[in-house]
Amino acid sequence: MNFDSKEAINHLGYNTASSELIIPEYGRHVQNLIEQICLIKDREERNKAARYAVSVMGDMNPHLRDVPDFQHKLWDQLFMISDFKLDVDCPYPIATRESINSKPERLNYPQNHPKYRFYGNNITYMINKALTWEEGEMKDALIMVIANHMKKSYLSWNKDSVKDEVIFEHLYELSEGKINLSKKEEELSTTANLIQVNKKQSNKTNYSNQKSNKKFNKHNNHLTKGKK
Description:
Elements: H1 5-9, H2 27-37, H3 43-59, H4 70-81, H5 97-101, H6 123-131, H7 137-157, H8 164-174, H9 191-227
Helix pairs in contact: 2-3, 3-4, 6-7, 7-8, 7-9
Pfam families: DUF4290
InterPro entries: DUF4290
Region (Disordered): 199-228
């Protein structure tokens, strides 16, 4: 049987009780939806509704599509929001309260330069990769790409302005003195251009979020009308 989100949500009620939000970023509507999925008696319909809920949750996080195990994380969150009461077929090992609450493994974030966290966790990897390249135009071009990326990241954190010399100093420190652009005549992209790029990326993310919210509201309206 093909999954039909409209057919699945026809079996759902709408809970207006203000229980505590388990994962606040998903909001009241998603939590109510999942609470009602738990009440569906037919397992096949409950499975369809659960898959629909996961798709909605995914649409609310378009910026995380490239995160490893993204779908697995969504299913874990589905069970968390249900307070681990949901009984459905899951394509992954079913999350339990014990597995979620167990102490997570320590993430291997770079700890050498915590004051430069605004450059992101991958900047050290990018710099170390550049250092392995043979001297020449390709390596020089890669280093300039890294420097421009650092400037763009800096402006995302501090939207005023930043001199190229500041970025060069940070790059020199992060590379442990192995990359020195202080004598380079070539300039980085202008502050105005990089701020414009950041704005475009921000607007694109906001548009994706608004589109996802409209999709969810459309289905939620159908849900509430079906109960009248």
